[in-house]
Amino acid sequence: MQNRFCKRKIKNSNRFAKKNNLETHPPHYQNSHTGYNYRMSNICAGIGRGQMEVLDRHVALRQQMHAFYVALFENIPGVSVFSAPNEDYIPDYWLSAITVDPSKTSGITRESLRLALEAGNIESRPLWKPMHLQPIFSSYPYYGNKVAETLFDNGLCLPSGSNLTGEDRGRIAVAIKAVFE
C-alpha cells in the first residue's frame, strides 16, 4: 500500500516538474496556485542561528557586489542601479537590480540584456511579476497606475550572491559591456 502511494507521488511530482520547467514557462517567477509555507524546522532554525555569526561578512560582500554594479553601469545612459535613497539607510543589498530605459540605451531592453547574460551562462531574472498580473489573481480588480508593470517590464535582477568571485564578476562585466558597446 505505502509503496503504491510513493510511486504515485513520484509520478505526479515528475509530471509537475515537466509541466513547470523553464522550457514551457517564462523566466520570471509566477504564482499559479495558492500555497503557504510558514513552518521552520529546528534544523533550519539552527542553520539560521549559525549564519548570524557570519552575517556582517555576507552583508559586506553583497554591498561590494552592489558597488561593482554601480561602477559597471556608471557611464551607461539609461541604466539605473537600485540604491538607497540617502545616507540615512544602510541597505544589505540582498538583491542587486537595475532598470533599463530602452529610449536611452539605443533600444537595448531588459530582455536583450537578460538573454545576453543567459548566453554566457549567467543567470538573471526580470523583477518580480506584479501580483495583479499573476494568473491566480487575474479575476480580481486592480487599482493602480502602471508603476509595477513598468518596473517588471524594465527591471532586471542581477547575480548578487555573497559567494561570487572576482572571476565571476569579470565574466559578468564582459557580458554586460558587450551588450552596450
Report what the structure shows.
This protein has 181 residues and is an alpha+beta fold. It has one domain: Aspartate Aminotransferase, domain 1 (Alpha-Beta Complex). Helix content is 44%, strand content 8%. Strands 1-2-4-3 form a four-stranded antiparallel sheet. Helix 4 packs across helix 6. About 10% of the residues have low confidence.
CATH topology: the name is Aspartate Aminotransferase, domain 1
| Rg measurement, Å | 20 Å
Please give the alpha-carbon distance between the first and last residues.
63 Å
Total number of strands: 4
User: Helicity range of the residues?
Assistant: 40-55%
Shape: globular
CATH architecture: Alpha-Beta Complex
CATH superfamily: Aspartate Aminotransferase, domain 1
Q: Secondary-structure element order, as H and E? A: HHHEEHEHEH
Strand order of the largest sheet: 1-2-4-3
Largest sheet, in brief, is: 4 strands, antiparallel
**Into how many domains do the coordinates divide?**
1
Low-confidence stretches: 5-23
Our estimate of the beta-strand percent is 5-15%
SS-derived structural category: alpha+beta
Q: How many helical stretches?
A: 6
CATH class: Alpha Beta
Mean pLDDT across the residues is 86
